[in-house]
Amino acid sequence: MNKKMGVVVIFWVGMGTIFAQRQTVFEYPSTSAFSRPACSGACWQNRDFATATVNPNVYRVIGPDPNNPDLTLVEGYLWTRIALIADNPNFVYLPTCVNPNTNGQCIGTYQYPDAFYNPYTQTERFLGDAVNILATSIPFPQNPDTEDVTWTGTVRIESIRKSLPSNPSLIATVQSFYSWDPREFTTPVGQFGSGSDPCRAVRAYQTAWQSFDKYVTAYWDGSIERIVIPYINMWHKRECWPRGWQTKVTITNNSNDGQTRTYWFENHLWSGVHGHTPEQPACPGNATDPRCKDCNEGTLEVATTIPYQQSVELDAYRFHVVDDEAAENTVGVSHDDVAFIRLDTVVGGTGVTVRIFPNDHGTLQCPAGNCGPCGPAP
Fold it and tell me: Residue 366 — very low, low, confident or very high, per pLDDT cuts 50/70/90?
């Protein structure tokens, strides 16, 4: 399986330094997804991709808008806009974009609803977002026997100036942010056989994502003195994906001063829920099994002390609750998150690797929810 190693090594070069990966606009050409028949019609193939963004900006009042003194410009709150720009200007998307033509169709360029993020703090939950492409904007084939839906083009993600939802007199300015390249956030080709199975396209889609195994690129942000991880995933035994994924983060202390270092790992759970084992505090919800009740603590944090030239591997979620493959010791988990790592002293030499990979197995423990007529992933 093709993987791209994402490693960040901090070389401290001065207060306020932000490496070039933080931008106000990202454009990713030559991105692609498809859903198509294969094997002379005997099987189906899918490949999907997703976008991931994260807001590292802290709140700051800039002052009155020079063009309208009744408005106040602020930083920290962030609006982003995602557009898919097809190489084929006549490509027909699902009719769910915010920029349809006069006939209500989304053709050529698909624009998603603008996304809003709160300013960064160590306890803020809503700092990131991720969007899958197939079945949200690019349709599955209407005739799965013959139709080939293939999209290639450019993904554009940009920060925009826009008023806050809660206060129209406050204007979030254009600010830089982080984005994980969707060409990396792309599944392998998922294939499912049996030309007579009406769910073969869905099963190929599920196979593609369930095979996702990638290293996530992390970044050093000197403005907040944090390592930024734009996407992590913890998913197990619930919500249509019984096997799901986990995320492991490895921190290596090669600090320039040769000292033992303490690191704090911040997991900001912007999406999803989990249960708690009976030994832990009860969660709200109607499920009779406490492991399936719905919780989201917002932000989870763990500290780890690492001697010089040694490494520690952190499970990005399981430090919080027990979640292993044994049915009696696991909880239902369905989280998409972003993460930050802060240091006790900012010196060069810290290395970080982040890997998202499938769980070994899993049996659906909690209610599946709306997984469509084909049901949960096998």
Answer: confident
Q: Which residues contact 215 (CB under 8 A, 6 or more apart)?
A: 3, 4, 5, 6, 7, 353, 354, 355, 356
Q: Stretch 188-194: mean pLDDT, rounded?
A: 89
- How confident is the model over 105-158, as pLDDT tens digits? 999 999 999 999 999 999 999 999 999 998 899 988 766 566 789 999 999 999
* Locus of tokens 């294969």: 38
Distances in Å between the Cα of 189 and the Cα atoms of 49, 97, 148, 200, 210 are 11, 26, 14, 14, 11
Q: CA-CA distance, 48 to 354, in Å (whole number)?
A: 21
In total, the chain counts a number of residues equal to 378
Which tokens is 220 given?
């050093």
> In this structure, how many other beta carbons lie within 10 angstroms of the beta carbon of residue 89?
10
The partner residues of 107 in beta bridges, in order of sequence, read 92
In one-letter notation, the amino acid at residue 167 is N
pTM of the model: 0.91
Domain boundaries, the chain: 1-21+217-378, 22-198
Nearest to 172 by CA among 53, 16, 60, 68: 60
310, two tokens: 């040694």
The pLDDT tens digits of the residues spanning 292-333 come to: 888 898 999 999 999 999 999 998 888 887 766 666 667 888
